[in-house]
Amino acid sequence: MFKEKLKEFEPIFYPKSIAVVGASSQEKKMGSRWVKGLISAGFPGPVYPVASSGGTVWGLKIFPDLKLIPDEVDYVIASIPRQAVLEFLDDCAAKKVKVVQFFTAGFSETGKPQWRELEQQMLRKARENGIRIIGPNCLGVYCPDHKIPCGPSPLGKIGISGSVGFISQSGSIADKLMEIGMARHINYSKGVNFGNGIDLDASDFLQYLAADSKTTVVGAYLEGTRNGRHLFGTIKEVAKTKPLVIWKVGRTEVGAQAAMSHTGSLASSAAIWSAAIEQAGAIEVHSLEELTDSLLIFQQLGRCKGSNVAIIGGLADGGGGISVSASDACMETGLKLPPLSSKTRKQLTNLLGEVGSILRNPVDVSAAQFHGLSTLFQAIELVAEDPIIELLLIQEDVDIFLAYFSIEEMKKINDFFIELRNRQNKPLVVVLPPGSAEPERLDMEQMLLEASIPVFCTMGRAAKAIMSINKYFSSK
Amino acid sequence: MFKEKLKEFEPIFYPKSIAVVGASSQEKKMGSRWVKGLISAGFPGPVYPVASSGGTVWGLKIFPDLKLIPDEVDYVIASIPRQAVLEFLDDCAAKKVKVVQFFTAGFSETGKPQWRELEQQMLRKARENGIRIIGPNCLGVYCPDHKIPCGPSPLGKIGISGSVGFISQSGSIADKLMEIGMARHINYSKGVNFGNGIDLDASDFLQYLAADSKTTVVGAYLEGTRNGRHLFGTIKEVAKTKPLVIWKVGRTEVGAQAAMSHTGSLASSAAIWSAAIEQAGAIEVHSLEELTDSLLIFQQLGRCKGSNVAIIGGLADGGGGISVSASDACMETGLKLPPLSSKTRKQLTNLLGEVGSILRNPVDVSAAQFHGLSTLFQAIELVAEDPIIELLLIQEDVDIFLAYFSIEEMKKINDFFIELRNRQNKPLVVVLPPGSAEPERLDMEQMLLEASIPVFCTMGRAAKAIMSINKYFSSK
């Protein structure tokens, strides 16, 4: 599906060369930062700074004119005054540039007729000359696979190349998706921020990501669209091929006004969007946390359904309150918590004793603390072996644990989780709530994430993420 | 109100001496851990370990019998087998002990008639002898003000003594409340975990906290009650005096079953509870995060109403997407985001320029990056000075900021926040979302929390917390 997009978008996500127009020898200028970012990231092709001033920046020669670049130029990043865009597009036409990404802003999002008209003139000129436009008012492409960083930061941060694709109408959300990805091991194949989207828009990029074999799940941050019918059709097609998680903002009056000022988007009714997303078989989320949580779990658990969940809590001190509140969080989200088989419950009672234990599901394993880690591991293994259980959801309170045990014992527990997950084929999800031992908790989180075990900081967020994977695959 | 509770509960929260029964010379035994915890915390009175074995533990003499302690004993922590409880209560009567807290579990929460009956016998014996019982199946008192730690951890952690009180039916939730308090500067006056609550229960402790002059806000984790009518009456009275935030669990079928196994609580319909809490003028929350978020904001902002909020985002890179999504999060929670006055908007346009800015409310200040920090500070100050604005809600993405600026510049921003808050009398709330710079973010968070600026990790959580304070004080 949409296979034609692969060839068409080759110069967008895999350009052989990039020109940055508006990169003077002042290193603090946006264009210059962009050049530095590409160098820092290790972009594999040539990077050509362009500015009428000439000179050098970051050791590279600045071309006074796009047309003077000796090579072909696939992709242009334009950070120029808005008054100059039409003339600049003439240069691009002369140079036979394939794609221009405009960082330049101040068009329809200002709400003023003259700038909206200029935007339309840009589009006409681009179409006449076979140039594709990303933006204006955007950061363009993020492609870890081809070492293109997200936006003009001179650090040129690049995450590990992975299987998650995203589109974002907002640059700051694209940037934050990249940062959270680095922190939580959400590894992107590619992403794009398309701002006002006057030429290439959400539908185009969604179609590309649907066709891209490196991408297995797609996230989208949307503020609005100029062509709802076409976009909903695309969403439906994409969601047939791979999980598509959509965060649509501008749902409220003030949110919609802000969206208008931000990317010139006309927001339609929140209810219409929700209904259309649901009907199209995509997953709707309502915050950046929900979006990244869903992307993480789709990335880590693949096609798992896992509707029958076992909750385990109380790895050190009593897990009673955690068991009760986790049951509510999971049940209210729609997960199933079937009672363990009577055989498993009998085995758990023999192992942990009846007093101070909750052994039906949820399971409070805190009584294991009187016997040592091997009893704890046996208890978790008994739950994992129960045939009715499809997914283990374990809450681990690092601060409480460390009030009773050592950091070495904590690491042994995590090693056991990894080993258990590898040995059996039931997915394991860990909840690590923040508390008074944040450095240790962050270490544990990294250790589990590196082993591809999804980690969440609250039970409610874990439950919602698991539910999104349940929902998507059970309708397929 | 409830002034009589102050004297009655003096031996509970301010005991002159504590005996720990079940503290043998084996340092790993629960009772022995408890003794160590009290020593570590610096409990100001004598601690008497008691066990038939005699001997010593942690350098203290173990009394073979409660009655052999030469001193008066106000408060007893009992970690003994359940079979021994009745005989033990005879000893307590002989010794004229005022309060016994039973860590001992295995009573009505087992669901078995013989243990439910034993629980009733305990209660009768205690009543006949003028002994008050906390529990059984609980951790008892946490009182930073009197150096009583929360539960049997040998570390004996004690947070800063403050103005937040809590009651919790669950020990693990009490423990986690304490840990989160230490991490987020939620400073408790006192808390209590009362488990099965056969004698002193939620109502008693709520009445005490209402009367306690050191407590200005109360949080409650509840699984169920034996006397709903009495409890709702108490909630109503307490909520008249101070903000009362209630997290009631066991709302779902599995949650209610777990509550039964945990503290022998019969959960009633979630809808009845919600209606009763609302009617009583208390605030209902649905997770540990919401509970602690509310307690934090009540502690830090006092009587602030702050219904007219200004959102500021984009301290470095574009805050467009953040502005749009934050508007949704705040509006959907019920906060008001009034447009800034035309005067303020004009001043902001002069300062930041029109292109790439959102200046109505939310305010995207990212264009300040082209001018430096002093322009950023001016912009924030202009928003703060607008007479319609009652509260500033600022999102600060540490990882994005650090891709453009230095950590020293970040610290200057936080110094400015603190200085601004001190200078004017409008509260300031900061959202610091997690990302790829966690150590730096945690430093920033501590810096702001130490200056009594409430910090949240998502806009949605900040909005909900602000709304809870709005709601409470606007009905008063």
Strand content of chain A: 5-15%
CATH architecture term of the largest domain in chain A? 3-Layer(aba) Sandwich
Overall mean pLDDT of chain A: 94
**Tally of structural domains of chain A:** 2
Span between termini of chain A: 17 Å
Helix content of chain A: 40-55%
CATH class of the largest domain in chain A: Alpha Beta
Fold-level CATH name of the largest domain in chain A: Rossmann fold
Strand runs of chain A, count: 19
Structural class of chain A: alpha/beta
Q: Which protein chains are joined by the largest interface, and how many residues does each one contribute?
A: A-B, 85 and 86 residues
Strand order in the sheet with the most strands of chain A: 8-10-9-11-12-13
Instruction: Name the CATH superfamily classification of the largest domain in chain A.
Output: Succinyl-CoA synthetase domains
| Continuous helix count of chain A | 18
Quaternary structure annotation: homodimer
**Low-pLDDT runs of chain A:** none
Largest sheet of chain A: 6 strands, mixed
Molecular shape of chain A: elongated
Radius of gyration of chain A: 26 Å
